[in-house]
Amino acid sequence: MRRINAPAGKAEIGPPLPSGKRPYITSAFLKEALDRGEELFKWRERKASSRKRVGTKVRGIGTAVSGYIAGSAGFDGLFVIKPDGRISVQSGIGNLGTHSVMDVHRVVAEVLDVPWEKIDIEWGDTSKHLPWTCISGGSQTIHGMTRAAHAAAMDGKKKLQEIAAKTLGGVLRNSTWAESACRAPADH
Fold first, then answer.
1. Is the pTM of this model over 0.85?
2. Residue 144 in contact with residue 160, Cβ under 8 Å?
3. How high is the pLDDT of residue 180?
4. Which of 37, 148, 169, 174 is most buried (most C-beta within 10 Å)?
């Protein structure tokens, strides 16, 4: 039954996207996997010996299949730079014990060149304006939320450079500092 209903190729999965089209998996080789499993597990031999009572026990065999979706995109990153120089990162990630609720935001410290000790993670409190976050399962969190934190940090860095260029008299060209943007006037 599982082999008959197994998806193949670029099988559609999940609900329709905003475009109305359903997403698809990049590859499905489930029939081939079931065939290989049958061979390696010696399915026919084991099936013949299943359902036999040995004392008080009856053993059977079975198989299950499931899709595995890895990687996400399209989520939010959110942080606040406070007057004391600390950065408050809002995290909507569930804390499942893997520390991803904090670790994916290390990229903010790296992009902004701020020591990790100056980063405060706010999580689990919706009054803190938590960003829209992917599910915490499989390979979703690291892929989706590190990308979101990186995008937010890059945007924040660009805005800081624009503010500095205006305040200090520098010029920002193509998101890269001109030499004069790095120097403060002598009277500051």
1. no
2. no
3. 38
4. 148
Neighbours of 154 (CB within 10 A): 16
Residue 141: closest CA among 76, 89, 77, 71: 71
Please give the residue that has the higher pLDDT: either 100 or 116.
116
Classify the C-alpha dihedral 52-57-58-62 as positive or negative: negative
Structural domains of the chain, with CATH: 1-67 (no CATH), 78-179 (3.30.365.10)
- Is there a contact between 119 and 108 (Cβ–Cβ < 8 Å)? yes
Q: Would strands 119-123 and 87-91 be described as parallel, antiparallel, or unpaired? A: parallel
Query: So what's the pLDDT on residue 56?
Result: 92
Residues 152 and 132 sit within 8 Å (Cβ to Cβ): no
- Interval 137-149: pLDDT, tens: 667 788 888 999 9
pLDDT at residue 143, as a whole number? 82
- Under the banding of pLDDT at 50, 70 and 90, the label for residue 178 is very low
Tokens for 35?
């065939």
Question: Among candidates 117, 121, 144, which has minimal Cα distance to 133?
Answer: 144
